[in-house]
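User: What would this chain look like folded?
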Amino acid sequence: MSMVGSSGVNENRIDFYINEIINNMEQLEKRFNQLDSVAESTKSFYQSDSGNKFRNSYRNLRYNFSIIKKNVLSYNNDLSKVKVSYQKFGDNAADTMLAYARQKKS
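Assistant: Here's the prediction, encoded as C-alpha cells.
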C-alpha cells in the first residue's frame, strides 16, 4: 500500500529510493574495490603498451565512477531535501488553513 504523507508526496517511496540508491552505490563501491586489486595485479603478467593502456583505462573508469558516485549521492541528498520541503509546505499550508478557519469563525 502506498502511503502519502501530509506533504502530498509518497514519503515511504522516497525513503525506499533513498535507501536503494545508497545500497546500490555501496555495492558498486565493493565491486570496484575488488576490481582495483585485479587490475593492478595484471602488472605482473601483462607488461606491454596494451597492458598499460588497459590499466590506465581502468583507472579512468574508476575515477569517473567516483564522480558519478558523488553526483548520485548529491541527487540522493536533493531527494531528501525535496521530501523535507514538501513536508514544510504541507505544514505551512495546514497552518494557513487553520488560521483562515479560525478567522472565519470570529
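Confidence is low (pLDDT under 50) at residues 1-5. If you want, I can go into more detail on any region.
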